[in-house]
Amino acid sequence: MRTGTLSRQTGAATLMVTLIVLMVMTMITFFANRNILFETKTAANQYRSVKAIEAAQAGVEWAIAKFNEMHKITQTCGVSSLSTDRTMRDKYLDPDKDGRYSPTDPPVSGLPTCPQPAEPPYGNGAYEGARYVRDGPACTLINGVWQCSCPAAGALPTLPPCSDPKGCPSFRLRFQNVVNCALATPAVQDPGLVRITSIGCNDSQKPCVPAAGGSADGMATVTQLVKLLNGLATVPAAALTAKGNVNFGSNAITATNVDPGTNGITINAGGNITGFIDPKTVQSLPGTPPTASLVGNDASLATLSDEQMFSSFFGMSKDAFKGASSTTVVNCSGVCNAEILAAIDGGARQIWVEGNMSLNSNAVFGSATNPIMLVVNGNAEIRGTMTIYGVLYCQDGTWDNTGGGDAQIIGAAIAEGNFTATGTPNPTYDPNVLANLRGTSGQFAKLPGGWRDF
């Protein structure tokens, strides 16, 4: 009897231990699975978050690249050949078409204040203090290709639907002119200082795609301050500047500079200024004799090398200027009217002409609000009746109007060598045209410390 009882008790104890061990193993398995599920969800959330922030960062890089590509864009952000379209810069940073990059539309009276107020909700344009925040393009990645929408300034972008089960990363942009509280008191706007805000989503849903039915479950915001580095680093101080000699032969030059900031200098040359100068047509500051506005034998010009002279005006080497993404290169030797006009019509503001250039068209190149920077890597010859708004820079310049016509450069003309006229040239110094050129040419670059993702 005792033996049987002990056997039954031993079996019961073994069963109890087995049940306890089984329960413990079940609990361990349960918690292990729970941790695995938690880690899986965490990894999925991390994946969506990374996709969103990478999409947002892609938006910033895309915006800077588009700002620096000086060609007109279509509604889908491609290259446009329509004269009614505008460049990315002009479309979103110059909505009132005044020639200055300042995204303020409609106009705001009064000066903004410091410190800057918090940003408004992301929407179809809004005021932030005295500044207007403008909505911009949006893009979504479909089958490995970015599909973009660049609507009219202030309009909402539209994008094609996403059919990829893994989702289509997207970004949406906004731009605002930044108040630089360090410039002055009260605060002033710096037209070349722009904050790019990029909202990235792990899928093509709201807020990246306004017309989408749902909201993205992964979203990130990245902002980047960018500054326009002026293409014209130093403004010329005369209507006509030449490192060598300036010779007008027996023809009457009409040179004008009534700008007090430059002391009314009409011609500045490193060599001699010779030829017929008509006191009636050389116009400087009131009360200034015409000859007093002519500065010749200027050693500060004559001693410069060609590269030094170029960099003194443009702040970079010729190779850097030619290779800049904001520069349009025109390969032309001889008459280049059609090529130059086509480049300007395509949105170019900063043009490099490779080879000797001749212009003989009765046309207007650029405008007062949209002047051009025409750099000729060779000699330039100007004939006929035409007007160039901006800066013409060349190695040697020839102004030949013997066949008639009245060619003008409204802004400034610069020659690395000599400047010779066989007609009646008309260089006119215009500080407003040069200011517009400085404020719209050049490249946008990131400001150190200007990036944030919070």
Explain this structure.
Helices cover 24% and strands 29% of the residues. With 454 residues, the chain is an alpha/beta fold. The strands form 3 sheets. Strands 7, 9, 11, 12, 14, 16, 17, 19, 21 and 23 form a 10-stranded parallel sheet that branches. Strands 1, 2, 3, 4, 5, 6 and 24 form a 7-stranded antiparallel sheet that branches. It is elongated.
Taking all residues together, what is the mean pLDDT?
Answer: 82
- What is the 3D form? elongated
The value of Rg in angstroms is: 33 Å
Largest sheet, in brief, is: 10 strands, parallel
Class from helix and strand fractions: alpha/beta
What is the β-strand count? 24
**Can you give the helix content as a percent range?**
10-25%
How many domains would you count in the coordinates? 2
Low-confidence parts, pLDDT < 50 over ≥5 residues? 104-112, 116-132
Keywords, separated by commas or semicolons:
single chain; 454 residues; alpha/beta; 2 domains; ten-stranded parallel β-sheet; seven-stranded antiparallel β-sheet; 24 strands; elongated
Write the layout of secondary structure elements.
Blueprint lengths: L1 H67 L19 H6 L32 E3 L2 E12 L2 E5 L20 E11 L7 E14 L17 E11 L10 E3 L3 E2 L19 E3 L3 E2 L19 E2 L3 H4 L3 H9 L3 H6 L4 E4 L2 E2 L1 H9 L4 E5 L2 E3 L4 E2 L6 E6 L2 E4 L3 E8 L2 E4 L7 E8 L3 E3 L4 E4 L1 H10 L2 E10 L2
Parallel strand pairs: 7-9, 7-21, 8-10, 8-22, 9-11, 12-14, 13-15, 14-17, 15-18, 16-19, 17-19, 18-20, 19-21, 20-22, 21-23
Antiparallel strand pairs: 1-2, 2-3, 2-4, 4-5, 5-6, 6-24
